[in-house]
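Many introductory courses stop at the sequence. We go one step further.
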Amino acid sequence: MKRQIYFITVILSLLFFPMFAFAQKTFVHPGIPFTSSDLAQLKANITKDPWLKGYTALLNDSKSKLTYTMQGPFATVTRAPDLNNGAWKNDMVAIHNLAFMWVFTGNDAYAAKATQMLDSWAVANTTWGGNESMLDIGDYAPYFVPAADILKSTYSGWTADNTTHVNNYFANVLYPTSWVPSPLRDCNKGALQLEIALSIAAFLDDEAKWNDAIEVYRMDAGGGLRNSLPNGEVGDTGRDDHWFEQIQALGWGAEVAWKQGVDMFAEFDNRLLAIGELYNHYAIDPTGLTFTNYGGYSVYWGNGWGIPTGARHQHPFNNIIQAAYSLRKGMATPYTDQMRILTDEGEWSFLYYKSSDASTATPMTPIIYPSSLTVPVSYFTNTDIGTTGIKGSAIYNAGTWTLQGAGTSVASSANYTFKPVKGNVAIIAKIEGNSINSSNSGLIIRESLSTTSNYVSVNLLGAGGMSSSAAGSSAQTVYAHAGFTAPWWLKLERVGNRVFTYHSQDGVNWTNNALYICLFPKTFILVSIRFQTILRC
């Protein structure tokens, strides 16, 4: 028989605090994200550039005209495989454009046509499916939700039946594709899901959905704002220009939150400023920038920037970042300013360009995630769980544990060095080396020492790569990552009923590969360093 030997450095952190509470919410309409003040400013500015240039482009778009021929509705729309989604997307843009033509001209015919089109889709379209439904719905939420919000709030011809139909459509057909409050898809997909969740929750005046969406936006480390690094990288930075798709969706979601009184731009020390400035800095002149290996649930990027320099996007995102930080907060946005000048304004982006902005919003109470400290050897007890075949051991010397263990199962046959804890907790370990390629080790939160205990585990595989597994959890998003071996860092973090599993090359920048919603109590759990290998005779 053989048993594995691992050399590791361990850091444990414990934190006890109540989860944040939300104040009772009053929603602003119009305000998703255009308030009455925003619309008035736009109307006042469209006679001069750059607004005039954008307005002229909007005016000349066939989707902005009363002669536009509606392409739907259809009962079923899908993305991947595609079915009727082209017609749906064209009609959603037309609804948006017609609603703004109503704003700019005051001609009821535009509002009547937009309302009739939206209502027709709301009544007819009962299924939105496919493997990637959230991508199209998220991409077009910035069109159809603001249009619906403006029409419902400002057009006298909007009826109670329109409200019933559109509310039902948004709540029961479109909102479920956001997956909120469950874990998101990762990177750009998750950011697009948040556009759906935030905007529809606000439109519906649904406080429960809104609170769920804000919480997921803040906490989800695979697709929310935590899927980013302090330098401004996001999960798709190393992929391709889905990088821009991810950041623009996060920015639009934050703008919706701002107009509803919640300052997501302040979150994580103004993280969205770093995100926007990094993208435009890299696109304009990447000199001096260094890529940090990073990813999301489904992938880990270790080969550098995902796109060549030089990207140009004439897009609301640049105007959103400029307004949020430069106009409202007095913070410099030099690369965003340059990009806005380079791209000028078009028929969509000009709607978000501001001559002034004195609006306000309130930052939320920070979520305090467990911080780290090196723990003494006396914190831990070593034991075998189940039938391992060989007795395990743990020896600590000069900051490094040397552990030996055997077994056949993460859950029920392995060696553990553990500590009982209560509340929120994180444990970090650097796996320095492994003596057997067929073995694995990792970190685990268990409900008890029983072989049938509920648990969440993150595992470094002896042959390379990592994975996560769990029992007693629901609503999980989990992937394995490949391409690396020890020495490597692992981290397991529990906040409330969420358990995140991470890995890292440097122990500083963490890629989240899994998120579990735990069903087992948080009042008493065991955090453990786990060691297990298949016995060979």
